[in-house]
Amino acid sequence: MTRKILVLGGAGYIGAHVAKAIALRGDVPIVMDNLSSGRSDFVKWGPLVKADIRETAALDAVFRTFRPDAVMHFAASIEVGLGETDPIGFWNNNVAGALNVLEAMQLHSCRSFVFSSTCAVYGNPERLPLFETHSRRPINTYGRTKLAIEQALEDAARADHIDYAVLRYFNASGASPDGEIGEEHDPETHLIPLALFAAHGTGAPLKVFGSDYETADGSCIRDYIHVSDLARGHLRALDRLFARQESFTCNLGTGQGVSVFEVLQAVERVTGRKVPFSIAPRRDGDPAALYANIEYAKHVLGFVTHRSTINQIVQDAWNYHRHQPGADHLPGTMCSQGG
């Protein structure tokens, strides 16, 4: 049976990958995005409604027109620094927007909701790897807004208004293997694209924030998951909700930590060029290491990663970036290392 899935923020990096995965399996993604950071050319597999989730009338019209069977929610502000300088704007977009969606779902009798959450809800790790039962003590506005929606979902589920899947991402990275969609933010703040740009002279030398952490090479360690693996996790979560199994929360990561310097080494292997960088002071609130325990995702979703080695992530990211307009002067890849 073909299902219609409302993908909020589906013109963005992760949302577009999920919309594509929905279409490839025979369902219909309906994208609603205000295009403040998303790209209309990333919407190729279903209709695009250009509107903001805080617009009640627009949401109502989408539900009445398309009658979606489920909602996947990616429409949120994600820039951690912006959240600290404009917290009210962050709360308005992330929390008020999500609550508006939940009200519309209740009005239109749509129960299944997959929520894009984050490991930022944990705050500073008390122990590693991070289990879902770890205390939730976010240290920034971004994490606090995501936690607020998690708590709203828990309350709504207890009242039997909704069935939810909360997916706590670690570091989404890479690009679609066919090169159609990749990671582009304005401004770009993520390590892998910045390292690729630095290696090929299309960006400034990379700033490595801290080299004196208590890790093997002194740099921060993070859990990088390929965006295509992340998309598959969303489909597994959606299928669990359609089977009317209980609501759940789980990590989506690899369970493996990779340091900043190991990422730079992968970029050098893939591109054949050194990454120019300088050491900058540590950033406030950056833990030395963050990586997931993924046993619960394996248990409830049968989730395993297919492309999430750091070599494969960087290779796919580079294949995407080197085929973008204006990138024809960049040299080709030197090697391809599978995941």
Beta-strand content bin: 15-25%
CATH H-level homologous superfamily name of one domain? NAD(P)-binding Rossmann-like Domain
Number of strands: 13
Q: What name is given to the CATH topology of one domain?
A: Rossmann fold
Q: Report the span from N to C terminus.
A: 33 Å
Structural category is alpha/beta
- Low-confidence stretches are 328-339
| Approximate helicity band | 25-40%
Description:
The structure is a single chain. With 339 residues, the chain is α/β, with parallel strands linked by helices. The protein has a domain at 4-170 and 225-252: Rossmann fold, CATH 3.40.50. It has 10 helices and 13 strands. The two termini are 33 Å apart.
Question: What's a quick, concise take on this entry?
Answer:
The chain has 10 helices and 13 strands. It has 339 residues and is of the alpha/beta class.
Name the descriptors.
alpha/beta, Rossmann fold, 10 helices, 13 strands
What is the topology?
Blueprint lengths: L3 E5 L4 H12 L3 E6 L14 E3 L5 H11 L3 E4 L6 H6 L1 H21 L4 E7 L22 H18 L4 E7 L1 E3 L17 H9 L6 E4 L11 E2 L1 E3 H16 L5 E5 L5 E2 H12 L5 E4 L14 H7 L8 H12 L18
Parallel strand pairs: 1-2, 1-4, 2-3, 4-5, 5-6, 6-11, 7-10, 8-13
Antiparallel strand pairs: 9-12
Helix pairs in contact: 1-7, 2-4, 4-5, 6-8, 8-10
